[in-house]
Specification:
The protein has three helices and no strands. It is mostly helical and about 90 residues long.
Length: about 90
């Protein structure tokens, strides 16, 4: 949340907060999948569900990082008034 607060662009703040919420949701699902596998290791698809949940966490973090890098670069360029017109 500190990263979102340090950004002055409202749209970028919303994207950061949305990304953090997304990471939180998929992380919770990963924990539930791990708990389920631990409770019944022989359950059908339990390992597959855990692996998919782990991939979802990775994807969500990568998306958050990618969006933040894009936003930081855009804000930096705008603040220095170096804009490219197409």
């Amino acid at each position: 949340m500190t990263v979102a607060g340090s950004n002055t662009d409202a749209h970028a703040q919303q994207q950061i907060i949305g990304g953090l919420k997304g990471v939180s949701v998929v992380s919770s699902k990963l924990l539930l999948a791990a708990k389920s596998l631990h409770a019944d290791p022989s359950a059908p698809n339990a390992k597959n569900l855990l692996a998919q949940a782990a991939r979802n966490v990775t994807d969500s973090i990568n998306q958050l990082i990618g969006n933040n890098i894009s936003n930081v670069m855009y804000v930096h360029v705008v603040q220095n008034r170096v804009l490219c017109k197409t």
